[in-house]
Amino acid sequence: MIIEKPLNSAQRDDLRVIAGMMIPPSTEYDVPGADDERIQADVLATLGRDTKRVAAALDYLARLADGPLAALDAEKREAVAREFRTSGGVAAATLIRVVLQCYYRDDRVLRSLGLELRPPFPKGHVLPDGDWSLLDPVKARPAKLRRAT
Amino acid sequence: MNQPVDVLIIGAGASGAAVAWSLAETKMHILCLEQGGWMNPSEYPSTGRDWEAKFYGEWSTSPNIRGRAEDYPINDDNSPIKVVNFNGVGGSTVVYTAHWPRLHPSDFGVKTLDGVADDWPIDYDTLLPFFEENDRMMGVSGLSGDPLSPLTHPPMPPQPLGLSGPLIAKAMNRLGWHWWPSDTTVATTDYEGRARCINLGHCTPACAQGAKASTDITYWPHAIRAGVELRTHCRVREITTNEHGMASGVIYYDKDGVEQFQGAEVVIIACNGVGTPRLLLNSESGKFPNGLANSSGLVGKNLMFHPYAQIYGFVKEPTDSNRAPPTCLWSKEFYDTDLSRGFVRGYGIQFGRGAGPVFEAVASEQKGILPWGKDHHRVFRRLNGHRLHVSAICEDLPEEHNRVTLDPVLKDSHGIPAPKINYTISENSKAMMEHGLKSGRKILETAGATDICVNSPIPYGGWHLLGTARMGTDPERSVVNEWGRSHDVKNIFIVDGSVFVTAGGVNPTSTIQAIALYIADQMKQRLANLFD
User: Does domain B5-45+55-529 have CATH number 3.40.640.10?
Assistant: First the structure.
């Protein structure tokens, strides 16, 4: 098993800032931002095979910002984030994905979305049978099957 | 020293399992070598809270992303469609969507009907009893009587329409277009020891309930009870031949990585449309300098993928999201050739019910319809749980430049040369995909969908690996004969999707398994003179 080098302090700071820009907290929906401490801890704990790409994305972000992202004023931070999103390639896409996959499994977020806090198995879900009379006009079509012989 | 066996099957997936079960009644000594292991459903993604995240890593359908020890790498840089598969007992049936259409009768006579490609040396009616036997073995749910599809007799009722099905159905009815509940291998009742579907939703990366038919839980238990030996974590490097030009066995690496020889009277290859040509090309020798069974030069050529043209959108009504099997309906409205459309042949349509929250967030962010910042929450709530998608499964015609070769550099963990894919989408397929997208847009708009997005082709959509060791009666134009035996090496048989002559416009697993059962039946009928 390959143990990836963990993110350093500057990378972790930038990760938190960019995550908060992606998804800020909302009182309207009663949800934390993606910079929330628990969500950030989940991201760092489950980076695994994505660590190298996320680190590369954060290094790229640091180059765009020419320093810590948090040190920039709001307008410059927005410009850096836009550039990161459009030119960051696979590394940026990986960072964005790991933030989203941790955010959208957080209990507070799922609760706000009206989703149950559980894996699909073993309870599953109940599906309505639906209106099968919708099939009547299709059943009325003449059967047609093209054949070579 | 391994004792020689009568029949050696390479690969325990869709076709290897079917052929093993069918041949078991001969009481021959049958051994199957599989490079992966048995699956453990308690470890499947839907058993954990991180079920969606796993799809991007260890449960990706791409072997290059997944990177399990059982996988081999594939150089698909020169292809807009990336290969997806699974290596383990059950093969890619562990991670397929369980959509279960058959090729149509017309698909076996493409040259006769439309003047393109080639006719198959067998027809639909020849395969019919094997389709039916396979449907019983795999356990199929569906509704008999589709006016535009071959008649089937699913032993279980169709999946519920759910929330998404009626939205699609109403739109199709308004357009006057055909739709029908799909045949699927999702058990809708308890069936042959399998528990019925409870709508885990996450069918593709394996079914923890065991409701989806993968061959590790359908064919294999029967085959093993009947005496077939299945040896796992055994990766075959090459097929060896003797002084008579017949296969003598295989060299493989066992679970400890130790090189072994296994002798066999008959070798059956069931490694899919990429793995099979890879193995044959890796089995070159002085007598077979261009690879085994390759006097035609066609091993690896004519690769067909089925380019998927996918379009999706978001309706006001709630859809099934991740709370149902992903596929439930099909349409054959555009399946047959109509030259006024600007292309020959046609496509099937596969409708999708929706997606889970992580998938939705990641996909919508990538498409630029899910913003960053304060609007994120409002927009996400409009998108999540409201997706419908439409995929046109386009018939790829065989072209020799679309091919599998051996990569000169890339190797698997045992040092065996990896396959390399060179593939381009033809002008005919592109025109078909455009038509599929236009049709899909019409369906979605009729359903009231907005924020319409396109994936065409679906980049990681190389599920169907077909045509790379085609069957035919002419040894100069085909690799195996009309009952699956190599023209060149008369004790080698190929039973997977490699033998397809043309691809049709539907998911191929049902047809692949019917062909495997048909070839096994042919072998059983000819046991006394199998090599004549």
Answer: no
